[in-house]
Amino acid sequence: MGHTNINETKGSYQLSNIDHLLQEERYEEVVLGATNGLKNPESFEAILLFQRSYAYIQLGDSEKAIADLEQCINVLENPEELPQAFYNLALLYDENGDERAIEMIQKAYQLNPTEQRVKELYQTITGNKTGE
Cβ(25)–Cβ(17) under 8 Å? Predict the structure, then answer.
């Protein structure tokens, strides 16, 4: 079969590996794995970007996390699949004093109106009480 594992550049292969790495909090390796997977992401581009952005957040690199999340929501075909991406982006934008935080938390809230932390961040960022 040869020495290099052809699967290593495939998104699906990296994704299962990344779940395991995240559980073990091996964030540098998550970044490497996702970066590899993104060379041939198949249909997993959005989730790989999301996982890498999460690792960047944990590593304290919010600029790279934001870049990945922005790309993630651009390639997301169905926002319902990753409401978390909008929430995380809202959080990062808010920390940076970026006005786009409002737009992102509104989107996250539309997708996930019952989740407590989404409601709380929505109230914090917009100053609106949610429809209660």
Answer: no
Q: Cβ atoms within 10 A of the Cβ of 36, count?
A: 18
Task: Give this prediction's pTM.
Answer: 0.89
**pLDDT tens digits, residue range 90-117?**
999 999 999 999 999 999 999 999 999 9
Q: Using CA atoms, how far apart are residues 111 and 81, in angstroms rounded to an integer? A: 9
For residue 28, give the nearest of 51, 57, 65, 59 by alpha carbon: 59
Q: Which amino acid is at 96?
A: N
**Cα–chain center distance at 80:** 13
Helices (H) and strands (E) in the chain, counts: 7, 0
